[in-house]
Amino acid sequence: MANNQSNSTPAPPAPPPLRPGGAQRLRGPVVKPKNFKGTLKRLWDYFGKERKMLTVIFIFIVIDSALMLLAPFLIGKAVDAMSQNHGKVDFDILEMTIIVLTCAYIGDALLTFFQGWLMAGVAQRIVKSLREAIFKKLQKLPVSFFDSRTHGELMSRLSNDVDNISNTISQSTTQLMSGAIVIAGSLIMMLILSPLLTLASLITVPLVFLLTRTIAKRTSVLFKNQQVQLGTLNGHIEETISGIEVVKAFNHEEKVIEEFNTINENLREVGLKAQIWSGFLMPIMNVINNLGFAVVAVFGGILALKSLITVGAIASFITYSRQFVRPLNDLANIFNILQSGVAGAERVFEIIDEQEEPADLPNAVPLENPKGYVVFENVSFGYRKDVPILKNVSFEADVGSSTALVGPTGAGKTTVVNLLTRFYDVTSGRILLDGRDIREYTRDSLRSCFGFVLQDTYLFSGTIKENIKYGKPDATNEEIEQAARMANADGFIKRLPHQYDTILSENGGNLSQGQRQLLAIARVILAKPSLLILDEATSSIDTRTELHIQEALLALMEDRTSFIIAHRLNTIRDADTIMVIDQGQIIEKGSHDALMERQGRYYQMFFNQFKNVEGA
C-alpha cells in the first residue's frame, strides 16, 4: 500500500473527536496523578518479569543495611576500648573492631554499586517494555485518535513521561526499600542501647514531618506552575521555529521575541520561588536534626555521669539517630520523584487504555483481486455526533472509472475517502466494494488495495530509494527508477550528489515541496494499487511539471478505479464523473461537458476560477 499520512491537523483532546482541520495546542503537562494508588499498583505489575532480580536486589539491600547498622555499634565498641579500664587502651578489641569496621564499609560500597547496577538494568527493561507497549498501541489506534490530539503531546508521553518513570524506578525503589530497613533497624538498636535516649531523640520527629508537609504543599503548587510555564515556553519555541518563514515574512521577529521574554520571565519567577521554597527544606531540617543531636548529647552526658550508659554507647546512639533521621529527610524528595513518575505512568496508561480500531468481524474475509466497483448507499457520517458531515450520500463508481470530488473547503470531500478506506466507519448506510460491504473485508486487505497521494506529502527519514519503495519493500532498483521516471522525479534525483541514496532529513526538509510531491507519486506508481485516491496530488507542482505528472497519472489510472479531490478544476476535466459536494450532500453529478451545459454550481465554480486565472 502506498500511503502517506493523513493530512488532518490535530485538535485538543478534551472534547469529543473533531473533524480534521481544527488547530489548538495543549499547554503544560499534568503534574499530579489522578489515581495515585491505582496507577502505582498497575506500574508494579510491570515489575512482574523482574521479581527475581528485585529479590536479589532486596537481599543485597538487607545485607547492606545490616552492615550499616553494624557500623555504629562497632564505633561504640572502639570508643569504649579507648575510654574504659582507667585510660588504658584495649588494643586487641580496637584492632579487631577497626578490621571489621573497614570490611563493613568496603562491603557497603560494593553492595551499593551492585544495587545501582542491577536496578538500572531493571529500570531500563521495564521502560523498554512500556515504550514497546505504547508504540505498539499507537499503531492500533484509529485515525480519529490522532485527529483529536497534537503530535507534540503524544511525543511527550512517549519520551518525557516514560523518562519520568525510568527516573522514578531507578532512584526511588532502592531508596524506599533501604530506607524502611534502616529506619526500623536504627530504631531497634536505639531502643536496645537506651530507651530514655530514644525517647529524647524522637522529640524532633514531629517537627520533621510538620516542616516537610508545610514546604511540600507550597513547592507542589510552585513546581506544577513551573511545569506549566515550561510547557508554554516549549510550545512557543516550537511554533516559532516551525513557522519561522511566516514570522519573517510578516516582520514579527520583535513580537515573538517579546512574547518569548514574557513567558521566559514568568518561568523565571515561578522557578525561582520553587527553588527557594524547596531550598528551605534541607537547611531547616539540618537545624532540627542538629538540635536533636544536641539533646541526645546533653541527655546522654547526664546518663554517662550517672554510669547509666557508656561513652561508646552514646557515640553509637548518635550515629544511629543520624541513620534514623536521614531516610526521613529523603522521603520528601522521594515522594516528589514518585509523584512525578506515577503522573507520567498515568499519562502512558491513558494511551495504552485507549480503544483500538474495532476488530474485524468474525466472518471477515480478505479482499483478493479487487475489481474496484464502489457503491455508497445512503451514507451519513459525522466526526461528532452533533455535527453531521455527510448526509445520505449515494453514488456508484464503475470499475476502472475516475470520480472527481469538488466543492468548498469542509464540504466532505476528504471524508468520503476516509470512509472508503475505513479510517472511519459510517454512522449509517453502507459502502460496497465489488458488491460486498467493506466492513466484511479484513481491514488490512482493504487498505492494501488503495494508493494515496495526499496534498501534504510525508516522507520518512532515510534514503530516497527507501521512501519510494515504502509501499513495495521488495522492489528492485530498476523498478524504483522506472517509477521515478514515470513520476518525472528521476531528473532531479540524478542531480543530487548521492542520487537515489541521498539521505532525506525529517519529512524531506532538504527537498522542495514539489520534489516531495513527485516522490510521493513515484511511491504510488511503484506500488501499483488497485484503487487510487489523489487528494490535490499536483497542488505543489509547477504548471510545466504538472503536464508530465498528469500524463503519468492518466497512465496509472487506466483500468483502476480512482477518486480525485481537486480545487484546480482544469485537472479533473477528463474525469468520468464529477461530483459537486456541498454541506455534506451531492448537489451535482456528471461529466465535465454535461455539468457545463447545465450551468449550475460546477459551471459557476469553473467560470469563477477561469475568470480569476484570466484576471491574473
Short summary:
By secondary structure, this protein is of the alpha/beta class.
Keywords:
6-stranded mixed beta sheet, disordered N terminus, Rossmann fold, 616 residues, alpha/beta, elongated, ABC transporter transmembrane region fold, 3 domains
Present the secondary structure layout.
Elements: H1 36-45, H2 51-83, H3 91-140, H4 143-147, H5 151-193, H6 195-201, H7 205-242, H8 244-249, H9 253-305, H10 311-352, E1 374-381, E2 390-397, E3 402-406, H11 413-420, E4 428-433, E5 436-437, H12 443-447, E6 450-453, E7 462-463, H13 464-468, H14 477-486, H15 490-494, E8 503-504, H16 513-527, E9 531-535, H17 543-557, E10 561-565, E11 577-582, E12 585-590, H18 592-598, H19 601-615
Parallel strand pairs: 3-10, 3-11, 6-9, 9-10
Antiparallel strand pairs: 1-2, 1-4, 4-5, 7-8, 11-12
Helix pairs in contact: 1-10, 2-3, 2-5, 2-10, 3-5, 3-10, 5-6, 5-10, 6-9, 7-9, 7-10, 9-10, 14-16, 18-19
Structure notes:
With 616 residues, the protein is α/β, with parallel strands linked by helices. It folds into three domains: 29-193 and 343-355, Up-down Bundle (ABC transporter transmembrane region fold); 195-308; 363-449 and 531-544 and 559-616, 3-Layer(aba) Sandwich (Rossmann fold), CATH 3.40.50. Helix content is 60%, strand content 10%. The chain contains 19 helices and twelve strands. It has a six-stranded mixed β-sheet, sandwiched between helices. A four-stranded antiparallel β-sheet has the order 2-1-4-5, covered by helices on one side. Strand 1 and strand 2 form a beta hairpin. Helix 3 runs antiparallel to helix 5 and helix 7 packs antiparallel against helix 9 (253-305). It starts with 35 loop residues before the first helix and ends with a helix. The model is unreliable at 1-31 (pLDDT under 50).
